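Chapter summary example.
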Amino acid sequence: MHAKTIGLIAHTAKSGVAELINAISREFGRFSISVLFEKETARIAGKKSGHSVHQRIAKPWNVSRETGSILVSGRYSRLE
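The structure predicted for these 80 residues follows.
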């Protein structure tokens, strides 16, 4: 099964997370896989709403509802 949209959530207090998130999203883009960023993950990575057709931003609970798979970087336990 090919996932059309991957949810991306990161522990935003970890060092180097912005670079990691941007590298991961670029790699998904190479394969035409859309990324749905959790809102704080997007903020730390410098993503803005409407940035790209293949990149969107959502609240944490919507990431799981709108994606086929979720990639979590670091321990993430906060749901607002």
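To summarize the output: The chain has a mean pLDDT of 78.
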